[in-house]
UniProtKB/TrEMBL annotation:
Coiled coil: none annotated. It comes from Siminovitchia fordii. InterPro entries: CdaR-like_regulators, CdaR_GGDEF, GAF, GAF-like_dom_sf, PucR_C-HTH_dom, PucR_C-HTH_sf. Residues 26-185 form the GAF domain. This is GAF domain-containing protein.
Amino acid sequence: MAHNMINIYKTNKLLEMNKILNQSLKLEEILHNVIVAAKELIDVSDVLLIYLYDNVENKLKFAKGEGVNQEKLKKVAFSPGESITGKVFIEKKPKLFTSEQEIDDYMGNMTEENYRHYYEGVKRRKIKSMFCVPIINKDRCLGVVAVNNYNQNGVFTKEDMQVIEVVAGQSAIAIDNAHVYSHLKEKNRLLKQSITIHNRFYQLIIEGRGIKKVISMLERMISSTAEFYTDVNLEDAANAFPIRRGDDILGALLLERPFQSFSEMDQIAIEQASLSIALELIKDNAIYEKEIHFREEVFNQLLEGKSGRDLQHALRYVKWDEDWIVQCIILEGKDQPLWEAERLVDKERFVKSIERITNSATLHSLIFTRAFQLIMILPKVKHTNINELINGIQALWKNEKDIFYGVGRETSIRDLSISYNEAIRSIGYAKQHNVRMVEYAKLGIERLLYEVDKEILDMFMNDKLQQLYILDESFIETLRIFIDLNKNHKKTAEILHIHTNTLYYRLKKIEEILQIEFNNEKDWIDLVIAFRLYVASNKKED
């Protein structure tokens, strides 16, 4: 009769326990209720311990206990499989221990540090008997409950263990719900703080305070230094946090330590700061694009040769005097554009780099873009070495961009259109003939030929050389070297590694088939021009 009374009491207590556990979403309250219920249901327990699994650290940590030094036990962190707690966690099955020897065997793999804290936590007592049950919900083990006795061997029964199993099962649902609630609560807190942080950074941008203020605020928020760089190799810089616009990397924040080492709140601050910097860069880029467009408008006014007030307005903007001499240079990519249109700041970085180089070499240059060309108008108020200027640009960009240069002649401001058109012809010739830099003033007969319609040039070339095409390749090579060496017979034979008689025969053959005489000045000039056209035509085909 007494046994039935005990069972009825325990059943009612378990039902009451289930109701209490489901009424709270606070983990501390749930664990307290589990301890209270377990004490009432198990009469002979000296110590009750609850360990919960931390999936971030992959450790079982002390969460709540009765009859122990809780501060000492909070330093214990069991790995899955370590000691009784870790083994029950992995096996997900309850375990009853009735002897000290069995307990010692199961606790044998406990680390020295954990044992030290554990022994102090249980007040230096040796366990005589115990049982341990897993806290399981939906086949996931959330932790374990351990019930210890330090006075008697074999005092616990399977019935005791089964009762605590029920308690553990009831608590598992409540603990899981508490975790979900706590997670949502934390997410909500982070979201609110994130919005607050976003608004603080966004306000700086709205007020036009700039990137330096954004960095300064970020440093205060994360209690760490940060620097903004436009050019950072993200692969080499472990502490660099990229600032992006879609797939386009606009720069990076160089932090004191890796991004992942910061707290979640600090990470949110870094992310919000990077977004604000991206907005500032986009805004600055839009302003810079307007500035470039305005420079082009000023150039158009100068190009049109306007006079009076319009000219004075344009000259005032570029800070030029009306009697200055200017020179135009055009930069263009060989096979690829000088900047990628889809990358926001690629063009801006390139143009600004050219500005820095030219500003150190000359005064008040006018630099702007048209399509994928960069155009420089350089005032010649002091000696400007074009080669040094171009060498500086090449040194800066040689590993990233294949740049060609077309240089017009020096002209007055009123004749700027002449220098500009010459630069256009020069850049065209440079790309056509694969020459890095072409100065219009240094072009020879090519300057005239470039102005002539291609069909007319082809007709002239074929009229003069058509019969030559039927000869062996050796005759064409002989003529090429003979022309390059300005009719020097001896050197031509040496380079071709042929006897002078062989050279004489080939040259006579060329004269006969083309019906010309090399000693006739007009014949020679016509031949040289036609052959240069032939060589240029073959280069283009290659």
